[in-house]
Amino acid sequence: MHTESDEDIVKRIASGDRLAMKVLFSRHQVRVYRFVLRLVRDETLAEDVISDVFLDLWRQAATFEARASVATWLLAIARNKAYSLLRKRRDAGLDDDFAESIEDEADDPEILLQKQDKGMAIRGCLDRLSREHREIVDLVYYHETSVEEAARIVGIPENTVKTRLFHARKKLGDLLKAAGIDRGWP
Hints:
By secondary structure, the protein is mainly alpha-helical.
């Protein structure tokens, strides 16, 4: 079963095969978790979203039409669930636990550079991008999805993905330059 395609495994899941579900979960859960974690920025919330994503997969496997890869389908479900959860949390207001979990964004690139950690400085610059730009950069560069797959996941036209990538790279370049980071690694 480990050599079967994801699409074949989804068909087996649709017929109630629990082992197929375990195989698909083991193939994709880390990737989906990391994607969700970057969106919600909370490990517990990310785990909740992952549970919901794979529960939906179990329930909706028969509806999979293979218009995109299974990985793309899972990331799209995960994205929708993550944003839905974030909207609910925002609408419910801040509780003390959530307020404490909000990262302090007071560090600017200059402070990060003083810490001599380029990786941290780059992550700080990425965090300063807009949500839309950060999401596209995450999908295309970290999750290595194609522009076409990113468009399907986010639900926007391919040209919009390309435009967001262009502006995100330009803004990131400006932020990195302001932080004193050149494009190369020593």
